[in-house]
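4-aminobutyrate--2-oxoglutarate transaminase
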Amino acid sequence: MRNFTLVLLNYLSNTLSRIENQTGGPPVNSSQTLKARREAAVATGVATRGIYAVRADNAELWDADGKRYIDFAAGIAVNNTGHRHPKVMAAVAAQSESFTHTCFHVAPYESYIALAERLNDATPGDFAKKTMLVTTGAEAVENAVKMARAHTGRSGVIAFSGAFHGRTLMGMALCGKVNPYKKAFGAMPPEVVHVPFPNEFHGITVQDSLNVLENMLRSSIDPERVAAMIIEPVQGEGGFNIAQPEFLRALRNICDEHGIVLIADEVQTGIARTGKLFAFEHAGVAADLVTMAKGLAGGFPLSAVTGRAEIVDAAPAGGIGGTYAGNPLAVAAANAVLEVIEEEDLCARADEIGDAIKARLNDIASRQGMEPIGDVRGVGAMIAFEMVTDRATNAPNPALTQAIIAEAEARGLIILPCGTRANAVRLLPPLTTPAPILAEALDLLEASIESAVNAQAAIAAE
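Structure:
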């Protein structure tokens, strides 16, 4: 019945578009007119693609012109349970019948407490935990740093090259990528230092990174001034680079030695994306604080900080929170998301999807003429492939990366770039993607890669 409804809606949308086109000129809300309106009304710094969405369902999305796409961006790892999962939408609808906002600081509600209890139980670590809810990933990171500083009485923070932790002032300082996140915004907050993230594909081993960190703690920043160390277990914007289990375990030991709070930024990796509810589980390591957002509420704005009770409680009353923090509709969605993950075993499904994607990409990369695919990597359904000029040097090929993304979009597949060198393609399908749509998407991806690679080769040969 659901599929029949989608077909009917698609037919009606296309029919309306044809009728509008017969009047001469673009329809009032076509992609063309929306693009012009966006350029006139919206800040240029808010970068957008050319896909103007009108509706979406699970792993599919339709634009203002009636074109269908398979969505392998998922709102940047937000729609892990797919667009408009029925259980999530039902939970939000039910909550909207009671109230939509009271401000938790003014009139708290049980659903917030229940979600906190769930996250306290679900995050790694056999110790007493507490949770606070906010709205965005950047807010979660900011509050985690505030908690660490309040708990330790220190101010320094260690982050990593290639990191992305948000666009707020502290978030920018923590980011390990200048363009576009730091460019043009002036001085960053002090006492934030960066260590190279291990990237063996580009010659940085785990030991290399640890050597720099240990030397930094001896020569550049007093460990007794460091409040926190923050790391993504798999970098998002940085290129889907994976922190090896031995690296995370070593960081845990260093933090324990110096009394530093270890913060796991699971904003993109969390909520079943990597085949575990949280990616730190792959290393058998528990961070002191965990930040999460994106997939937590199935498309509704919500984030959280969960961690050791004594650290979370270090902030004074009223020092953390916000007017919209823990919005009732988003909280209802998050409680439903956690139920869907368990009921549909989406952690296992993430592994199945990721295995299928990596198998296809490795097959493509092994063919003659596909040497520009330098690396295929990922955990669970968080997969990237990196484009290079040649495998001897692994020099980045950002032009080819953009060509693949554009070709995929033209064919009806939404994928995203990433990496400090702008030469990696990341794939973030909903964990609820049906097998036939996954197969269709991989065919589109393969055709897009082959077309872009062959076109670049032809230009080089001229």
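Confidence is low (pLDDT under 50) at residues 1-9, 11-23.
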